[in-house]
Amino acid sequence: MAFKDILGNERQKKILRKALQKDRIPNSMLFCGLEGVGKKSLALVLAKAMNCEKKKDDACEVCSPCKAISRDNFPDVMVISPDGNIIKIDQIRILKQTAYLKPMVGQKRVFIVAEAEKMNEEAANSLLKILEEPPLFSHIILVTHNPDVIKPTIKSRCQILSFQPVSREDIEKILLEKGFGKERAKIIALLVGGNLKKALNLEWEEIQAKRAKAWELFLSLLKKEKVATFLKNYVSSRSLRREELEEVLEIFSSFCRDLILIKEKSDIRLLMNPDYAEVFKKTENFLSLSKAMDYLEKIDYAFYAMQKNLNMNLLVTSLFSNLIS
Amino acid sequence: MTYLIYARKYRPTTFEEMIGQKPVVQTLQNAIKNNRVAQAYIFSGMRGVGKTTAARIFAKALNCQHGPTPTPCNKCEFCKTITEDRSIDVLEIDGASNRGIDEVRSLREGVKYKPIYSRNKIIIIDEVHMLTREAFNALLKTLEEPPPNTIFIFATTEFHKVPATIISRCQHFEFKKISQKEIINHLLSITKKEEITISSFGLNIIAEAADGSLRDAQSLLDQAVAFSGENISDEDLKEILGVMNREILFECSTAIIEERPDGIFPLVEKVINGGYDLRFFYKELIQHFRNLLLIKSVKSPLELLPLREEDMKKYQEEAKKASSEEFLRYLVVLQQGEQGLKFSSHPRIYLEVLLVKLCHFKKVTSLKDILQELEKMKKGIKAPSELKENAEISVLRPEEEKREESVPEIEIQGKREREMEQALKDPTVKYFMDTFKAQVLSVEPIKRVKDKE
Ligand SMILES: Nc1ncnc2c1ncn2[C@@H]1O[C@H](COP(=O)(O)OP(=O)(O)O)[C@@H](O)[C@H]1O
Ligand SMILES: [Mg+2]
Ligand SMILES: [Zn+2]
Ligand SMILES: [Zn+2]
Known about the structure:
Chain A contains 16 helices and five strands. By secondary structure, chain A is of the alpha/beta class.
């Protein structure tokens, strides 16, 4: 990958290339922004460009450092990711020990800390000194989609580069270029909410099927049909998976939201499920505005409860009896 | 040429260069002059206000060839080795990385012996709050039997995590926030040296965002240069700092006041496309409504709100569109929603729907009416609600289901109450609640009134 292969985020690319030209890449950086907009990829491209033998403002992709970095086989570029769900002090310790040593083969050492928000208190604190005064041949790039939880003492020591969500138009354009059909490109662009990675990896047939099933369910809840069977299936089945419920509820939320949008006669182009516009219009009257809002509140609560690991069966029962009552 | 960020490039090397912190600097300098240097010091204060810097300068002052002196020369071998962090007798230890008992033990071994080359052994432990309890205990022993010619300097952003036993053996200096004015002057001097142009508005908003931390201000300036080159434009700066565009805020309040829920969806889309964090937007929106409420209710709001004249005019226009009571109600509901938004799994939907709800608020009854309704309800009289339910809903209503009073339902209730409490803590809200003799109870139950119909 080179700069040209990173889609969107023109401004961020421009800033970094300018810094490369002037040889002014900061040693400590924080990349933040929505998931799936190319933060980590861009960090890797930067690592390549800094070590590329052509010494230009991009990665040439043919020299041996460029190739080695692409293969994740370059001793001076290191990616640190959570071990389980946290980044621990031992991982940062290795980073620090290495960072004080001159690069082995390349020109700069680059450390990319992915999901930096997952550093625990000890790990984050032990990074402070090196972030403040790293050796000039070492660069640390923290990457996060949740800058809110990064400690101010860390932010204070970093140059922050914020990434914007890839706009709907851009995603649509990129998908069209990739050969997606017009309608499909449009719908996917709306479905993913600025997450380009998700847009590119989406399993279209699968997501269509899931939405269709969720809609059927939603409708029967609205009409109070087949509720009993449904509940029986969901509640009694021992195999009820949390992710499955999460997915269904997530789609439900988008239905409710879209119904509200339609009821309020807002801009149809902003629907999250644009291909359901006609269906929504037909069913609009089954759900009052306040009821739709009520649903959303209950669904939100269910998510909250899931995080708290409440008993799943109990949760489903109470959620759905709440929804239909 | 090596490239250093401003925070590193402009780290003071003398006490005179230090900005703010006058009492600390003076006391340290006097201690040296009067030969009354303490055994151990602890420097506390927020990030980037000069703790580490002061510790290093103090170390030089103590060990400078021409010293001890309140004005270290920075030229002699002793000063230089300290600047380059290779002095054998001055150790700067990262407390967060060397936090265990073993590290402190080996430190104790090290201070048993007299300094090798220099006058004093100086141990700086930065980020000292991260030491483990055992390590602190070991450290305490050392402080109780102080080795000769050894001076300890501890620095921390989290003073409250340092045990009292340690603190009682140290001279404590609290480093204050750097004032807005000092930050601006400092930024000005950097921009002169670096030949950067920036407006005074720009300097002001950087200083504001830095919130008292000089390092934060320097970092922001660095980012601004990376973003827009040597000529920093106000627009770029606003983008870097995420300053909310007031237009969007006004657009939002107008949609709410004029009851145009259809305007909400495009608005939220705009906020997202502008790259703003939704929670950040929400905070700004609360502030926005607070401003409106204030303007509505005090005689000379300019004293309370540092707004530009043209903005003030806009606020005054906007404030005319609703009553104080209504603004209060908006504000209370917004406050209540803040926690929910924070934890919502779908912040976008949560925000959209909350704002749509607000658009319907006027239609709903006024505070007084709600109180009356509640009163009537208590007496068992059916209250008329102005919000009409869709006819269909009654058709859809299930035949008397027995409703399980499940645990989660109760928890929702608890959550709401917590949110309410949260809202009530806000001084502005509190003030107006008192003025209007209003109760929060009367804001939320609109829905409940209907539920019980
Ligand atoms: N009081 C100050 N006077 C001058 N520069 C300061 C001051 N405080 C912070 N700085 C700037 O911020 C950087 C970090 O300061 P430092 O002393 O390390 O802060 P901390 O209080 O976090 O230890 C310094 O390199 C310097 O550029
Ligand atoms: Mg410090
Ligand atoms: Zn190359
Ligand atoms: Zn000297």
